[in-house]
Amino acid sequence: QVQLVESGGGLVQPGGSLKLSCEASERTFGDYGMGWFRQAPGRERLFVGGITWNSGTIAYIDIVKGRFTISRDNAKNTVYLQMNSLKPEDTAVYYCAADSIPFRPQIRVGADEYRYWGKGTQVTVSS
Q1: Distance between CA 57 and CA 24 in Å, rounded?
Q2: pLDDT (tens digit per residue) in 77-99
Q3: Predicted confidence band of residue 57 (pLDDT cuts 50, 70, 90)
Q4: CA angle at 82 for the pair 80 and 84, rounded to the nearest 5°
Q5: Which residues, other chains included, contact 5 with Cβ-Cβ below 8 Å and sequence gap of 6+?
Q6: CB-based contacts of 19, cutoff 8 Å, min separation 6
Q7: How far from 48 is each of 26, 28, 53, 57, CA to CA, in Å?
Q8: Do the beta carbons of residue 73 and residue 124 sit within 8 Å?
Q9: What are the phi and psi torsion angles at 15 (to 5°)?
Q10: Average confidence (pLDDT) over 17-25
Q11: Which among 114, 45, 110, 46 has a CA at the least distance from the CA of 79?
């Protein structure tokens, strides 16, 4: 059972930055694509972006393009979400998730295609 633990959330002013981390418990983490999702109160869980197992492909939804950056360090079993120019509408619980199939060359955007999930970290953007 792979365990994923997110960290780095918090309260930040509009225009500020945060860097989220997601550490996996298993060394096979490097075999799987990873996704970042977020869920605001009363809203559905939304795909934010993802990265393939070898960092060959990275993708984002349009509303975060140019502001968010996903990266990974397989030697540290960790994936990152750097968030810049944060807006109040970015407020949500952010989750990382591991793809259900290893070595996929494409990024999956559906939550049901991810097998393992972290418990989430709260990001609040407010003045």
Answers
A1: 20
A2: 999 999 999 999 999 999 999 99
A3: very high
A4: 170
A5: 22, 23, 25, 118, 119
A6: 8, 80, 81, 82, 83
A7: 24, 23, 17, 14
A8: no
A9: 90, -10
A10: 97
A11: 114
- Enumerate the H helices of the chain as residue ranges: none
Average pLDDT of the chain to the nearest whole number:
96
21: its two tokens: 């981390």
Q: Percent of the chain scored above 70 by pLDDT? A: 100
Phi and psi torsions of 113, nearest 5° = -95, 0
Q: Are strands 10-12 and 121-125 parallel, antiparallel or unpaired?
A: parallel
Torsion of CA 40, 20, 66, 89, to 10 degrees: 20
Q: With cut-offs at 50, 70 and 90, classify the pLDDT of residue 2.
A: confident
CA diameter of the chain = 42
Q: What is the pLDDT of residue 27?
A: 78
Burial of 62 (0-12, 13-18, 19+ CB in 10 A): exposed
